[in-house]
Amino acid sequence: MLTQLTHEKLFLRELEHELELIALALKNLPSEEFTTERLRCAEELLKTEAAFLKSLKEKKTADAVVKSNCLFSLLGEGFKLFVKEAERLKKAKRELTVLLKEGEYERAAAVLSEYGRSLYALLTLLSLSEASQLELKLRRDPLTGLLSRKVLKPVFNRLAELTRVTDLPFTVALLDIDDFKKINDELGHPAGDCVLRKLARVVKSSVRKSDYAFRYGGEEFLLLLPSAGEKEARRVLERLRRRVEETTFLCGGKELKVTLSVGAVSTREPAGKLCRLVKEADRRLYAAKRGGKNRVEVGSI
Question: Is 219 a catalytic residue?
Answer without folding.
Answer: yes
